[in-house]
Amino acid sequence: MTHDDFPTGPGGTSPGPSAVRPGVPSVGPAGAQPDGSAAKAADPTDAVLPAGLAGAARTLFGDRLDVAAAYAELLATDGVIRGLIGPREAPRIWDRHLLNCAAVAERIPEGVEVLDVGSGAGLPGLVLAIARPDLAVTLVEPLARRTSFLIEAVERLGLGATVRVFRGRAEEAAAGAAGVAPLRADVVTARAVAPLDRLAAWCLPLAVPNGRLVALKGASAAEEIAEHAAAVAKLGGGEPAVHLCGVGVIDPPTTVVEVVRERVVGTTGAAAGKRSRGGRSRRR
Half-sphere exposure of residue 252, counting CA atoms within 13 Å on the CB side? Predict the structure, then answer.
């Protein structure tokens, strides 16, 4: 896949790395409860959306709004109880998390594979899988309590056909281990994980040649690029570019930094020595 192929506008496992595909007997088949009964489908008319966000939610999720609403409820309940989402974040799940992540879908081509590094509670990976059922999404997360939540979320939301969970760090996903082949994808996403230099060290090896890193960033994205562009180039990345996603749909738009993997380079000692601390610089 070349640079020009990408769009420019809307359109409990054992320690160590393991690829966990939803649907294993201990979890149950996709769309079913652990006791084998069918999962109750969410009704989009029951979705409780904060004032002023219903239009944006329908634009970004379309006929998948019911699944997005079920995920929002899961984050506001189990996500908070398990410490994946702060209690103060519960009232802001739609604007700060779901809509913010869903807007990034406009930067991802149709039918590609996506790796979400440091997925945490599934942001942005699960959101993208909900909004874009054409994508094949792998959620990369090293912490057991988070991967347990992700596996359960995938099952309860009926996403087992397009989403899998990999328990391990980004470096382990790139190297492969314990009978698991190295992971590669057309697009590697990350949100609130690390500064751009470390993020590129972890994520670019997961991208296929001419694939790209799509990192959700804040208002300081341009400053990060100025500070870390040289380090990104040494890692085989092209010139980082800033894009605003969801313009005219959400306010403020989502800021992303994109880096194309232009060259395959060996892992430097410095990069190899920096471990991901669970894939996040802070907890969501």
Answer: 8
Neighbours of 240 (CB within 10 A): 23
Distance CA 9, CA 20 (A): 33
Q: What is the pLDDT of residues 209-256, one digit of tens each?
A: 999 999 999 888 999 999 999 999 999 999 999 999 999 999 999 999
CA distance linking residue 102 with residue 124, whole number of Å: 7
Residue labelled with tokens 């992971």 = 183
The model's pTM is 0.79
User: Residue length, the chain?
Assistant: 284
What is the third-level CATH fold of 17-279?
Rossmann fold (3.40.50)
Backbone angles phi, psi at 94, to 5 degrees: -70, -55
Residue of 241, 245, 249 whose CA lies nearest to 221: 241
8 A C-beta contact, residue 238 and residue 260: yes
Model pLDDT, residue 281 = 37
Q: CA 197, 278, 109: angle at the middle one, nearest 5?
A: 60
126 and 139 Cβ atoms separated by less than 8 Å: yes
Of 82, 92, 66, 251, the C-alpha closest to 159 is: 66
Alpha-carbon distance of 161 to 43, in angstroms, equals 21
Considering only CA atoms, give the Rg of the chain.
18
Instruction: Please check whether residue 185 is in contact with residue 176, taking contact to mean a CB–CB distance below 8 angstroms.
Output: no
Percent of the chain at pLDDT > 70 equals: 76
